[in-house]
Amino acid sequence: MSALSGTVLGLLAVLESLAEFIGAHGSIPRLFADATSQAGPHGSAAGVQFAMVVGLLCLCTALPLVFLRPLAAGITVTAASLGSLLIFETLTLAGFAAQLVAQYRLGRSGSLLPAGLLGTLFLVLALTGPDDTDYRIRVVLVAALAPLAAFVGLVARSNEQNRQHSAIREVMDGTQWENAARGERVRIVRELHDVVGHHISMIAVQAETARMATAGMPAEGAERLLGIGDTARAALTEMRRLLGVLREDTESVTGGDRRPQPDLGQLHELLDEARKASATSIRLILSGSPSALDPGIELAAYRIVQESLTNARKHATGAAVDVELTYADEALHVRVRDNGPGPPPDRATGGHGLLGMRERASAVGGDVHTGSAFGGGGFVVEARFPTKAAQTP
User: Fold this and answer.
1) 64-97, pLDDT tens digit by residue?
2) By C-alpha distance, which of 46, 56, 61, 129 is closest to 91?
3) pTM for this one?
4) Interatomic CA distance for residues 184 and 76, integer angstroms
5) What is the pLDDT of residues 375-392, one digit of tens each?
6) 261-265: long-range contacts (C-beta < 8 A, 24 or more apart)?
7) How many angstroms separate the CA atoms of 10 and 64, rounded?
8) Rounded-to-integer distance, Cα 75 and Cα 301, Å
9) N or C: where does the chain have the smaller number of CB atoms within 10 Å of the terminal CB?
10) Residue 284 main-chain phi, psi, to 5 deg
């Protein structure tokens, strides 16, 4: 409630009370004369004090709404209203309105118990007060409308909370859809890089291998194979540039659909395909007892092996590769090692292959380490994936 409206309501209560007393005594001098005659020798001072008490009591029926919190204002306004009814057997219309506003504010703030107790006081006063008709009407109206005002305040509070909750739900739903869309974009980026990049790299490697390994090939055929390799590499570069643009908006998202396409059961086909493409030795070494794992883990492991073989063909052409799968009780260990020259110290780190491996492993609770292999040189990719038993709290 604003200061201006509260002050106006208090002044109206004062003026209304004075008007009622003037109507009862005929004039202001007669009012003070009656107060003076009742007070004895000190009548003049008593008249002034009487006027001050009336004015202060009327102000207290409305002015606390401006300066006090709902509970304190409700108690103060109710006490002033009860005092006016008990002492002067009346309640101004401004005080009546202020009492309803106080009850409404209590309901709006959620203070239902204080609102009910304060409203009950007027009901008791209506049952035990004088039999004056005007007095009865005013007290009964306050006792009946005070709970209604508190209920209206409670309804307004509930509506406001519902609007706030609806706004929050809309924001959360929008954020959820946005995260789902960004997660889908991440999945598409990974699949494009892993699948399309893998096959384009194979085209480039096969064209180069055919050009170098075919004896007596006409110059025109060699030139066409060279053009095929150059075109494949250019397509791979453009695809990576496009994926880089997509990744800029999805760098912070590591979720996405974890349902796999391939799994470790198709690993032999992947290795056979890589052997044909590079004409190099690729061994598969299995340790432990193979068992069915979570589909997301098998997909991530398959993609990491696929990416590692692609990197070996590009950066260690002709090098032998060992792919090791170790099934332990609590984890699956994947190790892909080649006997090539290893990563050069000045090699750029802006590609998405190694980053994609780490993201895939992290999405299923695993981790990936890459670097130079010890004992014989080459490059090694090591990944560890916790099994379902290890992931259970």
Assistant:
1) 777 778 888 888 888 887 877 777 677 777 777 8
2) 61
3) 0.40
4) 61
5) 667 899 999 999 854 443
6) 261/191, 261/299, 262/299, 262/302, 263/295, 263/298, 263/299, 263/302, 264/290, 264/293, 264/298, 264/301, 264/302, 264/325, 265/298
7) 9
8) 70
9) C
10) -110, 120
